[in-house]
Fold this sequence. Notes:
CATH superfamily: CNF1/YfiH-like putative cysteine hydrolases
Distance between the termini: 40 Å
Number of helices: 7
Radius of gyration: 18 Å
Strand content: 25-35%
Order of helices and strands: EEHEHEEHEEEEEHHEEHEEHEE
Number of strands: 16
Bound molecules: zinc ion
Shape: globular
CATH topology: CNF1/YfiH-like putative cysteine hydrolases
Number of domains: 1
Strand order of the largest sheet: 1-2-3-16-8-4-6
Oligomer: single chain
Amino acid sequence: xxxxxxxxxxxxxxxxxxxxxxxxxxxxxxxxxxxxxxxxxxxxxxxxxxxxxxxxxxxxxxxxxxxxxxxxxxxxxxxxxxxxxxxxxxxxxxxxxxxxxxxxxxxxxxxxxxxxxxxxxxxxxxxxxxxxxxxxxxxxxxxxxxxxxxxxxxxxxxxxxxxxxxxxxxxxxxxxxxxxxxxxxxxxxxxxxxxxxxxxxxxxxxxxxxxxxxxxxxxxxxxxxxxxxxxxxxxxxxxxxxxxxxxxxxxxxxxxxxxxxxxxxxxxxxxxxxx
Length: 275
Ligand SMILES: [Zn+2]
């Protein structure tokens, strides 16, 4: 089932002079505090299934293409002396807090076994990589701290979005009432079909699942991960939660989709940085 309307209020498309086209969150960027991005597949140099802005290193694409694609995106963002942070995502629930000592003298930081990152340091670009799994952007505009979450179904099952909010409060002094959350493009309820095994795993770990599941005619289940993450964030005391309408599988011209493309595909990059 394709969604008829892929217009979106929450994310806007920016066409950079170097050809890179990426989405950003006006609600965040217009504060002047941060720059956000979610790459589309346009403006890179990769070919074939990875055409063209493949952001993911762990694909069958040539590594040098990915390096060049990332370089183009980061240059399009024009953030002064950026420090790029890449968690090595494992569909877990570990959240890393980046402090000044962790990044001293570095341009690229990789954090092992981590699916979410938070910081209050300027010019640090928190980055995650996606091909269907949700991204959640977090901003406390008052105390100026940020977070970025890779929330696929396993992360959602482990309540990773709420855990990231909790760590922003604990470590960075953010306040629940100030935090704004934006859920980005991912596999939406229209396309996230699972069999009984996955459904049952959800059932045993989450009590609010019923609201976000519908059964389809193939006797499978459609899960609304955006709805689930919204609920988890609200349960964590975040009242300002917004989401995009974009479904990665429904927009082949804009996005790679692991499920739609049957595994052989590129990745989008998501990111946020304090200016
Ligand atoms: Zn869809």
